[in-house]
Every structure is written in C-alpha cells, then in structure tokens.
Amino acid sequence: MLKIILNPEFLHLILAAVAVMAFVAANGLVLVYMERKIAGHIQRRPGPYEVGWHGILQPIVDAGKLIGKQLFTPDGADGLLYWLAPIVSFVWVLPLFIPIPFGPKLIAYNMDLGIVLILAFAGVNLLALCMAGWGSNNKWSLLGAARAVAQSVAYEIPLLLSIVAVAFTSGSLSLGTAVQQQGGWPWQWNIMVQPLAFLIYFICALAETNRAPFDLPEAESELTAGFHTEYSGMTFGLFFLAEYANMIVVCAVATALFLGGWQGPVFPGVWWFLAKMYILLFIMIWLRWTYPRVRFDQLLNINWKWLLPLSLANLVMTALLTKLF
Amino acid sequence: MKEYLKQIKNLWSLIVGLSITGDNLFRRTVTVHYPRRQVDNLASFRGPIELLPSAKDPDIPKCITCMMCMSTCPSGCITVVKQKVPKATPEEEQAMAEVEARGEKVKKHTAPKNPARFIYDFSLCSLCGLCVEVCPVNSIGFSSDVYMVVRQRSELKLDLLARLSAKTRTEGKMKEVA
Fold this sequence. Notes:
The complex is a heterodimer of chains A (about 325) and B (about 180).
Chain A: H1 2-6, H2 8-42, H3 58-68, H4 79-91, H5 114-122, H6 124-135, H7 139-170, H8 175-180, H9 190-193, H10 195-208, H11 220-223, H12 233-258, H13 270-288, H14 296-324
Helix pairs in contact in A: 2-3, 2-12, 2-13, 3-12, 4-6, 4-12, 6-7, 7-10, 7-14, 10-12, 10-14, 12-13
Chain B: H1 2-10, H2 12-25, E1 49-51, H3 68-72, E2 78-81, H4 90-101, E3 117-121, H5 130-134, E4 140-142, E5 157-159, H6 160-177
C-alpha cells in the first residue's frame, strides 16, 4: 500500500488533480468577472463596480452567496437524478484537463490518445444535463435537456471531423505531439494549414459548451434557465463552474491543436498558452454579447447543411493531400 | 448554388456586428455612478405635483381656486376646498344695514381667492400633467423630488399647502445660512 502511495507516478497524478481543481475554480472566478465586465462595457455601462477595486471581488462575494443558499428538492422530482446531475456535470470535467499540455513540461499526464480522451469525457456532460432536465420534474428543464441532446449530438460530429483532419496532418492523437510539431511563429501554426477546420471547430465548440448564439438549452427568454431552472445555491454553482471549465477545455484544445500551444516567437512557455487561450475565451464572450440566439431549426440547419459537409470535404482533402505529399 | 453564395456573402454581417460591439467596448460608459455622482437634468423630471408660491407671499400659492385641476384630473386625485366668506361682525352688519337703508350698493365680504385646503393623493396620480397644463395662473408644477419615500399608503395623501410653507421655510433657512 505504502509502495503505491509513495510511487512518484501516483503522487504526480494526485498533485495534478488538485492543481486542476484549483485551476478550474480560479479560472471560473476570473471568467465570471471578465464576462460581466465585457458585457457591461459593450453595453456602455461599467459592470460590477462596488465590491473591491472596480468590482474585482464581486465573483468571490457571489460564490459566497451561492454557497450560503438553501438547497431543496422540488415537488415530484427524482431525488437521485436531481442531486447526482450537478456532481456528474462537474466531476467529469476534471479529467478533460489531464492531457492538455499547458507548457513544455506542464502536463498532468502525456498520453498518446489525449484527444480521444477529451472527446469521450466531454460527452458525459450531456448526460448530466439530461439527468438534471429529467430529474427536476419541470417542463422547462425537460425542454432544455431535450434541446441540449439534439444540439450536442449534431455538433459533436463536425467537431470530431475537424479535429481528425488536424490529427491527420500531425500524425498523432496526442496534444503534446501536436504542439511540438508546430513552430513559434503564427505561419507555423496548424491554423495556416487548416483554417476551415479551425473555423468549424470553433463554431462547434460554441455549440457544445452551450454558449450564445447557440445557448438554446438554457435560453432565458423561452425556458427561464433551461435544464438548471430548479437548481439553487451550489448545485447551480457546479453547473455554472462546469460550463466555464468546458469553455476553458475547448479553448485549450483549440490553442494546442491550431494555435501552436505553448510555442511562441520568444520565450516559449506556459504564458503563451494562457494568452492564446484567453484571447479565444475573450472572442467567445464577445460573440455572446453580439449575436442573438439562433432558432432551433436554424441551429440544426447550420450543422447539417453547412458544417457537416464542409468538415467532411475538408477531411477528404486533407487525407488526399497527406497521402500525396 | 446562387443561394449558397448569397448565404456566404451574408456572413459579412457577422463581422459588421462584431465591429459594432467591439467599438462600443472601448468607448466611455454612459451610466452615472449614483452615490458618487448624480444626474443634473432634474428640470424635466416629473415628481409629485407642487403648488407654486405667489409673488407677494411665498406662503400663499398663486392658486385662485378655480377648480379646473380638480375637474380635469382623470384619476381624481386632487381635492381643492374654497375658503369660506368671513362672517361680518355685528358692527359691520349694522353699517351694512345703514348703507342698504340709504339705497346705496352694499359692499359685502367676499371669500379670499387662495384655497383653504389643497389635498393631493399621490397614490392615484399618474403624473399625466393635465392639471399643470390646465391651470390658468400656472400655480401647479412638477416637483423634482426624487427621494420621496413613505411607509404607508395613507402617507401619500399630501397636503400641498403644508408642503409649500414647509418648502419656503427650509428655503428661508438655507438663505439665512448662506
């Protein structure tokens, strides 16, 4: 037993798990603040301003408020599913961070099938939304969950195909290898070889993380809050945190696959990774406060009529060209 | 095929939208941070109506008790009461009788023009401004009282005459201080 515990590999994994949790929580706070500030300034108002300097402590106060709130089960809800859903939603986000190479050495566990692991575990979040929607015994929740399923199932396909196209060019399913094969300068990045794949990936990532303009599962104006209508306090907080963690994951994968990861023109390192990731997150937030929500038929039309054929064509072209050269 | 090209062309509008929001992101905010700064355009603010003082006596309104506001008000929130004709003293009555006996025109007492009571129920008022418009002597105006707070609905029944004299008193004090 002691041998297992003192095994450096095991200690490494424990350390990684703790670090990932801290990273997710810290980034959740930063992103909430960033989102509200950007939303405010786009609408020509200051956003949070009163708590701390320019409202910088607002997310911490909000977290305290969420923790202090009462939790209760709505009438006729399925207790097991209802309480399990937020936990499932949050816990299964954490493994997604394992294969992401934040720096040359800063990676929880460098595995050959990193991309496959991320794609596989990303699907579990959908199950959590389903459980929440079904367990709440609420029509809005159920509608939100149904929308989430239709949306995620549809958008996972082009997402996968665009990632596979990149995997073809780099010849590996490991994110670490994908980063190492790219250079520091922008013209050495995969986005130059696969611009269409990047575009498709980013659109699908927006849809997969339920971000506006594809936020139909939680469309406020139609479904109050969609699948998490009945949740209060920290159960809602876990869904919220999981959503932001998912945003970080999709942006981190985009950075590693398309934007050269931790490679940069000077001083390659983790700061390049974080800078690129945060630029992508900023674009995501910017998009949210610019575009109106799409209708459900439009949502599926974009996917089945545009993204899917385009990503397939892109994949075939990539396969042909990699075979030829 | 043509339609597909058109749809691709329409993607340009997404860029236009992003540039608009991106432009606004870096422009100055237009909101006012309330406790630290306050708005100064209260002239156009419609607070509960108030009586305006006459030029001679700041305690007495310009009002001539014509009842136009009372009959115009669509929500019936204004109640104006006329002053009574002062009773003549026995000496005056005697003097009047003498004048009448001589066959001359008697000069009787008349009621003062300003109102005895001016009650305004703010809980019914919709701030439509018809009373302000209809007043022939411009005795009614909107106050700029942004901070009016009451604890009970009954407190919204305002005695505008009392409010007017209270206002002149505070203004007088302010002048003394200055």
